[in-house]
Amino acid sequence: MSDTISEAAGGTGPAGTAPAEVGPEVGPEAERPRGPSLSPSRAADFMTCPLLYRFRVIDKLPEQPSQAAAKGTLVHAVLERLFDEPAAGRTPQAARDLVPGQWTRLLAEAPELETMFADDAERATWLEGAGEMLDRYFTLEDPTRLEPHEREMSVHAMLESGLALRGYIDRLDVAPTGEIRIVDYKTGTSPREEYEARALFQMKFYAVALWRSGGTIPRMLQLIYLGNGEIVRYMPDEADLLATERKINALWLAIDRARTSGDWRPRPGRLCSWCSHQDLCPAYGGTPPPLPAEPVPADEPPANQTPAAQPPGEQAPTAGSAGYTAVSPASAAG
């Protein structure tokens, strides 16, 4: 497999960066870090609401399956496997043909997903919506001109503070000249300006993890929004990533203080209507369960984990924000 980035699909730019190194703590076979660790999803939970973090990480409360989250999982699975096909075979129909098999696989892993639908007609409409998102993907990129370096890549990195960063990157592209592009698929739409920092923090989190594990600063962070057919791009520098690293460490200190004190305060806001745990939240007259008596491993992923509660269109940067480049479907597909 050649590590090429298609210029028409958003090449990373001129040469000059040393070839990317994949450090020993990056990749699907990497061991899970021991001691305190943090992922972008759990960091987002704590920033949204410390009590939500507690419910998911400490109490490990189950959550009802969400059609939006499940559709995102399905679309991500199809796009990951699309690149198993020879370049010429990566067509819109090939992507749609992958949907039934991937849906069957997801159901085998999580049978409760079937409870999301009242009847066969509702399920068929939902599956067609996933197909429409996949069709939209082909208006944004030409996968026949791409050979990803990694897909659904597990990344681990250890900061000097002792905090381990972990996460999964949807796609990693590496140019022949060594520039790295981190690609994240979003099945929502681009949000309003006040939600820009959240998605940017997630992408910079991944960039810090790659930088600290492999020594190379990614040239580009690219988010592909399949909800409204837009690509946004950001080019980080060392100052960006140092500031993000400081924020990550400060965030972990705040989490550790809450863990030590047992003070997991709710943070009421507009996202509360999307939360599965309102009946246990003091802000809504509920009572959280007692904290577990035994210590909980740091930032363990909870059972039935779902993305942090986010209304459609409020989980990603918007076009026109500082440092971002919006790309129209026509120019992206060029």
How would a crystallographer describe the biggest sheet?
Answer: 7 strands, mixed
How much of the polypeptide forms β-strand, as a percent range? 5-15%
Number of E-type strands: 7
Task: Please identify the structural class as seen in this structure.
Answer: alpha/beta
What's the oligomerization state?
Answer: single chain
Poorly predicted segments: 1-33, 300-334
| Backbone CA Rg | 20 Å
Q: Which whole number gives the mean pLDDT?
A: 82
Figure out the total of helices. 8
Order of helices and strands: EHHHHHEEEHEEHEH
Distance between the termini: 23 Å
Proportion of helical residues: 25-40%
How would you sum up the global shape?
globular
Describe the overall structure.
The protein has helices spanning 40-48, 50-58, 67-82, 92-109, 120-140, 196-214, 238-261, 329-333; strands at residues 37-38, 150-158, 164-174, 180-186, 220-225, 230-234, 324-327. With 334 residues, the protein is of the alpha/beta class. Strands 1, 2, 3, 4, 5, 6 and 7 form a 7-stranded mixed β-sheet that branches. β4 (180-186), α6 (196-214) and β5 (220-225) form a beta-alpha-beta unit. It starts with 36 loop residues before the first strand and ends with a helix. Mean pLDDT is 82; it is low at 1-33 and 300-334.
